[in-house]
Amino acid sequence: MTRKQRRLTIIGGSLAVLAVAAALVLNAMRDSIVFFSTPQMVAEKHIQPGKRFRLGGLVQPGSLVRGDNLKVSFEVADGSSKLPVSYQGILPDLFREGQGVVAEGALDASGVFKADTVLAKHDENYMPKDVADALKKQGHWKDEYEAKAKTGKRADDSAAANTTQREQGAVR
Fold first, then answer.
1. Most buried residue, 5, 65, 90, 145, by CB count within 10 Å?
2. In a 3-state reduction of DSSP, which class is residue 166?
3. Phi-psi sector, 25: left (phi>0), alpha (psi -120 to 50), beta
4. Is 55 exposed, middle or buried (0-12, 13-18, 19+ CB in 10 A)?
């Protein structure tokens, strides 16, 4: 073999080993790449009781029931399926019915998701008041921001809630 052929063989072999290693890593992480599973995905995957995962969806209006010792139960839905959730602890400030939520925990034998962590999702269209005012002055204001402001969502309330969440996250 010439020097050029030997070099190409080594490079080709190295690329093949790298490709196999990448395929093995991606295959092992296949289920954990998804940030959360919806109730529909939980039903389709037939997740075994006791296996930890993240559940995401909307808190069903009218399903929130508060009990003794900070026990809370509610239903999470994704439009086509619902899954009952029970949690004991302090809920995030942004948690409310009709709002997005991500809960971490496991299913029990009766099919109830026992959460040990509940994270409330906020509106992705949040905009600080000073940025909104600057956009208004420049003439770049979007109508959807005005519609949200008219429905009663104030930027100041969202900013205070986000600051509180960041502070709580730093403590953990």
1. 145
2. helix
3. alpha
4. buried
pLDDT of residue 48: 87
- Give the pLDDT of residue 16: 97
Sign of the CA dihedral with 3 first, then 6, 10, and 15 last: positive
pTM: 0.56
What residues contact residue 127 under an 8 Å CB cut-off, 6+ apart?
145, 155
CB–CB of 114/55 below 8 Å? no
Position of tokens 């009766």? Answer: 110
How many residues make up the chain in this entry? 172
Distance of CA 23 to the CA centre of its chain: 26
Cα of 52 vs its chain's centroid, Å: 15
The pLDDT value recorded for residue 155 is: 44
Tokens of 113: 């998701």
83 CA to centre of own chain = 16
Q: Which residues of the chain have pLDDT under 50?
A: 145, 153-172
* pLDDT confidence of residue 96: 87
Report which of 42, 62, 30, 61 is spatially closest to residue 113, judged by C-alpha positions.
Answer: 42
* Tokens linked to 82: 């619902």
